[in-house]
Amino acid sequence: MSESRQAEWWHRSTVYQVYPKSFNDTTGSGTGDIRGLTEKLDYLQQLGIDIVWLQPVYVSPGHDNGYDVADYERINPEFGTMEDFEELVQELHRRGMKLMTDIVVNHTSTEHEWFRQAISSKENPYRDYYIWRDPAPDGGPPNNWQSKFGGPAWQLDETSGQYYLTLFDKTQADLNWENERVRRAVNEMMLFWVGKGVDGFRMDVINLISKDQRFPDDDGSVPPGDGRKFYTDGPRVHEFIRAMYDEVFGPHQMVTVGEMSSTTLAECIRYSNPERREFSMTFNFHHLKVDYPGGRKWELMPYDFEALKRLFSDWQTGMQQGGGWNALFFNNHDQPRALSRFTDDGTYREESAKLLATTLHGLQGTPYVYQGEEIGMPNPRWSSIREFRDIESLNMYRILCEQGTSPEEALAVLQERSRDNARTPMQWDDSPNAGFTAGTPWIKVDERYKEINVRQALERPDSIFHHYRKLIALRKTYGIFSEGLYRRLDEEHPEVYAYARTTGGEALVVVSNFSAKQLTFRLPDQHWADLSALGEGKLLIGNTGEEPAFAQEISLSPYASYLWLISRA
Ligand code: ISL
Start-end ranges of CATH 3.90.400.10 in the chain? Predict the structure, then answer.
């Protein structure tokens, strides 16, 4: 990107992601609700949040916790009412905050009225809202594509003898975006939410909506060989998104983030460069696959630190050059906690959580904080399969066991990889169930809630919460956080990630020790010469209680992380 790229308000904003089912329960039902979020808006405001991303609260059978929508324009009674939703919007706006909702339109629930109509007969006008194909000559599925949650991507409808496509669970039927009526219906639905005062959208797996209409078999030549190359960033995807922009996002000045599954840098530049009129920014997941051996999620290996740094660096530089914009994140509801995954959630939990925060928030993009991240919630490490709730985890556990993995080993994989790691209830205080519910929680509360909770985090000035609060404020104060050009400084150091962000006469420098070793990091001579020529270093934030001067040799205690501003102040 050139430094002259037009600044947008959300370049200096931070988004907070709410998984409503696990956030705050006001009724004693054991599941969180919309009023539970409204009740906590002062807390989010104190953190400095500008935008709240609320995950699906629409009517849904809940097989995939709301990502299986049965009615896009009604609130699931489990979460409350439309009045509750309207109150949430009002209360956010009263505080100068914005609401981003989740739009899930690659697929609907098979309980959606459109699907009920579609399956009722081949002649029904809704039939073509979904993707139907005749069986292969042997009577099996039309092609060899695999579902992302395990098993074939096609389900047989015995009545008509045809198969319908389901890239996720068998209860999530893929919509047929070739059908113009589908596209129109989706735009109308989004305009309905604009009418409710929603300010932005997070678009679920939106880069999968355009399928190669030949529906060919995957010959396996490109791993993982499950068919994704025929529908990821597919033939008409940009055309479809541009039409949404022209009718909805543009006219209503929405802030939008596209969730891009298995995408490329070149595609994300296309999706998020403002000249193309598509999205404000994109999520990609490459940096969260650095512990997947050969791309296989359900096998364990230590993470590849160099790959993590290389991916951040490639995307920082590439998106800058191409005029795209990154959504920055280490955590979400589909990922194990980064704290447990990349650092130490035991002895060095506080240092680790702050290190991850500083490392991420120093980058260019819009940072996302996933609930609980700001107090350092770790993976729960359950010792029984009975604690797990997630459909993907339970499917994969069954498949692993069927393939001959022992139950103990399969459990060990889930402990590291399950999406439930991120879905344990938010820990508000040290009362029973961490203050999340007065009833029985739908999923087990992490046992460490007595020491890890919001109440104690607010009280301690040096807590992880206050570290996040400072980072969020720094981004608003200093334009260099959103504008500075990225340069990596660490030259493949095995433990340290160091980078700079530079503008004309200033630099930010971030140095993070991703290890439990005490060490000294020496900035390479050329970088030191360039940076020290810009002036004196002022420590903006650190995680050790010390305030080291910016120097060529930097002493780093375990998981130490520092961020300096270098300028002629
Ligand atoms: O393929 C991936 C990354 O390249 C996955 O992480 C993929 O992005 C993810 O599974 C998609 O998730 C989203 O859509 C799912 C839903 O279950 C998730 O909760 C949601 O975040 C289906 O709607």
Answer: 113-174
Q: Which pTM was predicted?
A: 0.97
* CATH 3.20.20.100 describes domain 9-105+180-380+422-467: no
Ligand 1, atom 1, lies closest to the CA of 261
Counting atoms of ligand 1 from 1, which one is nearest the CA of 107? 23
Is residue 199 annotated as part of the catalytic site, yes or no?
no
pLDDT tens-digit profile, the chain (569 residues): 444 468 999 999 999 999 999 999 999 999 999 999 999 999 999 999 999 999 999 999 999 999 999 999 999 999 999 999 999 999 999 999 999 999 999 999 999 999 999 999 999 999 999 999 999 999 999 999 999 998 999 999 999 999 999 999 999 999 999 999 999 999 999 999 999 999 999 999 999 999 999 999 999 999 899 999 999 999 999 999 999 999 999 999 999 999 999 999 999 999 999 999 999 999 999 999 999 999 999 999 999 999 999 999 999 999 999 999 999 999 999 999 999 999 999 999 999 999 999 999 999 999 999 999 999 999 999 999 999 999 999 999 999 999 999 999 999 999 999 999 999 999 999 999 999 999 999 999 999 999 999 999 999 999 999 999 999 999 999 999 999 999 999 999 999 999 999 998 999 999 999 999 999 999 999 999 999 999 999 999 999 999 999 999 999 999 999 999 999 97
Measured from the CB, is residue 465 less than 6 Å from ligand 1? no
Atom of ligand 1 nearest to the CA of 64: 17
Say if ligand 1 is within 6 A of residue 262 CB: yes
What is the CA angle 195-59-332, rounded to 5?
Answer: 85
Active site residue 525: no
CATH of 484-567, one of 2.60.40.1180, 2.60.120.620, 2.60.120.10, 1.50.40.10: 2.60.40.1180
**Is the distance from the beta carbon of residue 168 to the nearest atom of ligand 1 less than 6 Å?**
yes
Distance in angstroms (rounded) separating the CA atoms of residues 225 and 145: 8
DSSP 435-473: GS-SS--SSPPPGGGGTSSHHHHHH-TTSHHHHHHHHHH
Q: Which CATH superfamily is domain 113-174 in?
A: Oligo-1,6-glucosidase; Domain 2 (3.90.400.10)
Residues of the chain with CATH 3.20.20.80: 9-105+180-380+422-467
Q: Residue 60: CB within 6 Å of ligand 1?
A: no
Give all strands (DSSP E) within 170-308, no chain letters.
172-174, 200-203, 255-259, 281-283
Question: What does each C-alpha distance from 456 to 393, 428, 450, 466 come to in angstroms?
Answer: 32, 9, 9, 11
CA of 418 to the centre of ligand 1 (A): 13
> Ligand 1 pocket: which of 22, 104, 105, 205 to mutate (most atoms <8 Å of CB)?
205
